Amino acid sequence: YAPPRAMGEIELCSCCLTPYLTALACVALAALWLLRRAPAKVDAATAEYIERAADVPQECQAIIAALKEHGDDSDEEKKLDEAAAVLDSASRMRAVLRSGSLPLRALADDPGALLRASPHMGHSRDGALHTRFTVSYNLYAGSVVGLGTDEQREALYETQAAGELGCFAFTERGTGVLSGAAVETTATFDGTTGGFVIQTPADSAQKNWISQGCVAERAVILADLIDGEGVRRGPHLFWARIAAPAKGTMFKSGEGVEPVAGVTVGSVPRKTALRSLDNATLRFDGLRVEREALLARFATVDECGAYKSMLPPGCKRMEDVLLSRLLTGRVVLSEYTLGVAHNLLRRSWAYCGERELWRGSKPRGKKMREMSNVERTFADYGRALALHESFAASVREDVVKCIETEAFTQCTFEGCCVVKFLGTSYAVDTISVLRKLLGSQALFEESWLGASSFVANATCAAEGDNTIMQLKVVSDIVKGRAPLVPAKVSAAVLATPAGRRAALAYAYGLLRATLKGKAAIKDGQLLTDIAYARAHLMVLAAWRGPRGWIDSYERVCVRFPTPICF
Ligand SMILES: Cc1cc2nc3c(=O)[nH]c(=O)nc-3n(C[C@H](O)[C@H](O)[C@H](O)COP(=O)(O)OP(=O)(O)OC[C@H]3O[C@@H](n4cnc5c(N)ncnc54)[C@H](O)[C@@H]3O)c2cc1C
């Protein structure tokens, strides 16, 4: 039985539908073609960006020249005698200091000189020397300058001519990446001598990973200050001599140091990279230091052991002052690591321009860089690198201003955390992609993609572990220290697909966190997603270059490595 058809009803059979469906499919395909974003190509601007090393600013030329002159570009793998390599590397750092090319005094008088030098250090591959450099200037000397009195600063400046090395004894085995927020090492005021006694109370309190700790004569030591009344005042920094220069004691040959009484120096297990950098373990068994060892710009202890805090306005805890010490180091490490990635991208691009692929019967084979997959990788990673470098430069200039005016803003604090985890991890991703792309070439020493490039992994962990940086960004939002919408993010950012994607992911993450309540704080992946999405918004807000380059950033950063589901 077939029901009667209503007036005007059209009888549709599958063959009648075919033209409609075909037309619909054509319209959809045309729309997709019109809306498609062309794959990235290495055009003239991109090639110039990849190939050209930025000019070194006038104020940094002397220190960059000194690092080049005293640096060692030979392969890490060749340094079989590790002790000799460490001593050689340490003496290179002493030579850089002695050269006076960057006076320690500049940390107070011209903070921009150190910060602006960092993007240019990655052009040579002496990661050990570069780590010594940032530890010496940022962490060690930077702490004395930032937290020390004028007299302590002057005393520090006097050590430079002799090439004395210092280390930053902050991290402890137990507290690990949370060192600073917590500390087990103690510095107890001793009423009989009027000084402090520094003690490692348990194995977990042993200082760990201390760069240059095996060869340094002095250290800045993080310890819990116990005043004359036995009150624990929390983490403070002490500047102390830990060794006297003495030839041939610590290491079997060459220039070693002799630890002073109360200090035991060991070494972390053999590393896979950065072998000419010594990473020490330090134990203190009743190390006696004078009262003046306490870096006393913001807290003092008088002859009777009475404690007085003089925190800067707006700062409630000594921990915050201490952690602010790590800010410059974070920017330096990030820009340095991005510089390393840029240099490796440039070298690899040059190789791909020379490598002729199988020509078969043709007179000439294609150059490797002419393959679309290769070209696209360089275009995307080069352009995304440009966005990272421009963001890092904007944060760095903010930091320079803050140091000059002695007024740190939350926006700068956040920028330093973001630039640290974003820049260093992007460099690791870039290096890993280059290793994949270049195939067997990556195994050759001349590619520089071997052990020396692992410096990027080290910078992910050092001076504020990347995971902790991400958690800090989110916890500052939760605690109301940072605004919900990051500063400088405008409607223009949201006009880009990458901006919309990041904004949606950010809003979605915040919504999920709100619904989860307190449980959200234990959801590490959710917190990481929020931190990355917010970071992407900040990077896009800082970009002033070609808009098309944002597509590359979206492809290699916003969708990867933390895929965003919008
Ligand atoms: C080359 C190099 C040089 C260094 N130089 C110095 C120096 O000169 N002075 C100094 O004081 N320190 C230095 N460090 C130490 C560095 O700053 C880190 O503190 C150290 O690497 C922490 O290592 P760990 O194995 O104890 O980390 P762990 O505490 O064991 O953490 C390992 C990982 O666990 C995860 N994790 C840990 N805790 C948490 C948490 N609460 N929430 C979420 N995830 C978490 C993170 O992913 C982290 O990366 C250096 C490190 C390196 C690699």
UniProtKB/TrEMBL annotation:
- Keyword line: Membrane, Transmembrane, Transmembrane helix
Q: Name one GO biological process term.
A: lipid homeostasis
Source taxon at top rank = Eukaryota
GO terms for cellular component: peroxisome
Note whether Glycosyltransferase occurs among the keywords: no
**Methyltransferase as UniProt keyword:** no
Question: Record's InterPro entries?
Answer: Acyl-CoA_Oxase/DH_mid-dom_sf, Acyl-CoA_oxidase, AcylCo_DH-like_C, AcylCoA_DH/oxidase_NM_dom_sf
Query: Coiled-coil segments, which residues?
Result: none
Report the GO molecular function annotations.
acyl-CoA oxidase activity; FAD binding; fatty acid binding
Tell me what this protein is called: Acyl-CoA oxidase
